[in-house]
Specification:
By secondary structure, the protein is of the alpha+beta class. Helix content is about 25%, strand content about 30%. The chain has 14 helices and 27 strands.
């Protein structure tokens, strides 16, 4: 037995350690070192070029750190904890399994902190009050299974680790971490963000790994027929696309070259199978800044991210601790630089010094969620963790095939990309457009980071682009060639909201100045109000929905994330404005006038197959500053 393994196995409460196995590895890494708590991600004690020693650092990042991005979070004081590694050993998986304690960890007084009935009520309120009022596309609300144990924390996590290493397959990381007061063990399927440096070129690749869609293996055993039916489920598909959109926003902030979508792929585990994408781009940012700009995964928060944090704060009863945060391993690669590997803290059990055990589980709530089904999903996820930990007896499952290799599965996966924007499915290179190249644009951020994707696409056309928060926009922006009033959550008629009121002022001032304006989503609705069109709430929100449209004579497949719509009743009330609207409902999808254009959909979304072309057309129209000369028209969708 190695020295460090022996010390870990006989650790007392004051001996910190981490044990982790990476996906597919036949070895396990053990770490110990000094525990250092810091205030912010920038304070994580990484070495610099002048240091004699650059330590490896494993950091436990709690959910409350999202406040570093200015987002809401209940503060439970969970420490941003660093294990500054002083010793590391690598041991074979077989030896670790042989040596880890096989003892059971008895739990008593177990149950959910939020009852089934109360959780179902929360689901209904989120659908009606948040999604139904335009606050976002999807939100993840958690509850926790809690219990107590008399087994010391440092021993409990090692026993849980053995059960996970023996019984769980397909995890990205399987791990146990013990520090005084904070101990955890889990098998997370999902890498949130990683940064790797190419040794020959020095290029730093950022990778994110959105996973959404959970296929629970039937007791009879999973079959190709079962899985193909799952792949055809609209709700599961839309959930995955929405989280890809949200993580592409992050990639566009972090990577100067944007990000490329790879996949979709299948991640098969012992009792669950997920669908996933990989997102890849390059960045020169400090790894700590990459982590800050990507806090946290939409798969465990929701979208848009800022509003998702507010919704979580309104509807969850207590703070999250480390749930939906990350474990972040910073590994030095020389010259003061570090690589980063940061899986999401899900499928994880926590135990503190008092013996309190917590197993958080959340469900993704969307416009067509069924409250009872979401209750069942959280119960199933918690039971899955407890079963994997050996706390609950596993249900016997029949044989399961390699689902990714089943006939028709790869075809079904490839078909998902046929309706997505090819721009995001391939490497992106500048493609200047004559009418746009060399022009300047400012995008007003109305608290939806789709603005980062818009900025990347406009730069693709050769424009010089900056993004300004709505609260920082001044009248000086009248000098910019193109002002893009961006998307955001909320009701465009709610002038009591300072953000919405300011967007009205910005759009109104731009119109009055006769300066080129492009308005997107919320700002399209604001522009419609300025032009005299009524705004109505949709009967069913269009969150993550694709529509085939005729936009001014061009067939376009566009992604939508809206709860409110401008609606045309009879003839257009404003002369000289060209309107593309649904012939039956009157829903206004786009407008063009002298020096302005607008669109309800998100042209930058991965769901907008024809979005790049349409963005170039509308931006070009606004910059041309000439009306079409046609009277208002209704274009059927």
């Amino acid at each position: 037995m190695t020295t460090l393994l022996h010390r870990v196995l006989h650790a007392g409460p004051d001996f910190p350690f981490a044990v982790l196995r990476r996906h597919g590895s036949d070895t396990v890494d053990l770490y110990t070192g000094d525990v250092v708590d810091v205030e912010s991600l920038a304070d994580i004690p990484l070495g610099s070029t002048g240091d004699d020693h650059q330590p490896e650092v494993l950091t436990l990042v709690p959910y409350r750190q999202v406040r570093e991005r200015g987002f809401a979070a209940m503060d439970d004081g969970a420490p941003l904890r660093c294990l500054v590694v002083s010793e590391r050993e690598t041991v074979t998986l077989d030896e670790v399994l042989e040596r880890l304690p096989a003892d059971a960890v008895p739990l008593v007084d177990g149950g959910f902190d939020v009852s089934d009935e109360d959780y179902a009520s929360i689901v209904r309120r989120v659908i009606e009050d948040e999604i139904g009022r335009g606050e976002g596309a999807n939100f993840v609300i958690r509850r926790e299974f809690t219990a107590t144990t008399e087994v010391p924390a440092e021993r409990a996590v090692l026993a849980w680790l053995r059960a996970l290493l023996s019984g769980e397959t397909g995890a990205y990381w399987t791990f146990a971490v013990h520090t005084p007061g904070v101990s955890m063990a889990g098998a997370t399927p999902e890498r949130h963000v990683a940064v790797a440096r190419d040794a020959s070129t020095g290029e730093r690749t950022v990778t994110m790994n959105p996973i959404s869609g959970t296929f629970r293996h039937p007791r009879s055993g999973a079959t190709g027929d079962d899985f193909r039916a799952f792949l055809g489920d609209v709700k599961e598909t839309e959930e995955l696309f929405m989280v890809v959109d949200e993580e592409m926003k992050m990639m566009s902030r972090v990577c100067a070259s944007g990000g490329r979508i790879l996949g979709p792929y299948v991640k098969q585990m012992s009792r669950l199978t997920h669908t996933e994408y990989l997102l890849a781009g390059t960045s020169e940012l400090d790894v700590r800044e990459v982590l800050r700009l990507t806090m946290f995964a939409p798969t465990v928060t929701g979208s848009p991210m800022q509003n998702a944090c507010s919704v979580i704060a309104r509807h969850e009863r207590n703070a999250r601790g480390y749930y939906s945060g990350v474990l972040a391993l910073f590994t030095p690669v020389g010259d003061g630089d570090y690589e980063l590997d940061a899986p999401i803290l899900i499928r994880t059990a926590y135990v503190d010094d008092t013996g309190l055990v917590r197993v958080p589980a959340g469900a993704t709530l969307v416009r067509h969620s069924d409250p009872e089904s979401e209750v069942a999903e959280t119960a199933a996820k918690a039971a899955g963790v407890l079963t994997a930990l050996g706390v609950m007896a596993p249900a016997e499952l029949g044989p399961t095939v390699d689902l990714a290799a089943e006939p028709g599965v790869q075809d079904a996966l490839r078909a998902r990309n046929e309706r997505l924007a090819s721009f995001w499915l391939q490497p992106q290179h500048p493609a200047p457009v004559g009418s746009l190249s060399g022009r300047t644009a400012v995008i007003v951020d109305a608290e939806d980071e789709f603005t980062a994707m818009l900025a990347h696409q406009l730069r693709h056309f050769g424009m010089t682009v900056s993004v300004e928060h709505w609260s920082a926009v001044t009248d000086a922006l009248v000098d910019v060639d193109l002002l893009v009033a961006g998307p955001g959550p909320g009701d465009p008629l709610d002038l009591a909201d300072p953000r919405v009121r300011r967007m009205h002022e910005i759009v109104s001032a731009r119109l009055a100045a006769g300066a080129p304006l492009l308005a997107v989503c919320l700002s399209h609705q604001v522009l419609a109000i300025q032009l005299g069109l009524p705004i109505e709430r949709l009967d069913a929100p269009r969150q993550g929905l694709q529509l085939d449209l005729d936009l001014f004579g061009e067939e376009s497949l566009i992604g939508f994330y809206n709860t409110f719509t401008a609606r045309l009743a009879g003839e257009a009330p404003v002369g000289g404005v060209e309107i593309a609207a649904d012939a039956a409902s009157g829903d206004v999808f786009a407008m063009r006038g002298r020096g302005f254009a607008s669109v309800q959909g998100h042209l930058e979304s991965v769901l907008s197959r024809d979005g790049l072309r349409t963005l170039g057309s509308l931006a070009g129209h606004a910059l041309a500053g000439v009306a079409s000369g046609r009277s208002a028209a209704v274009v059927g969708s």
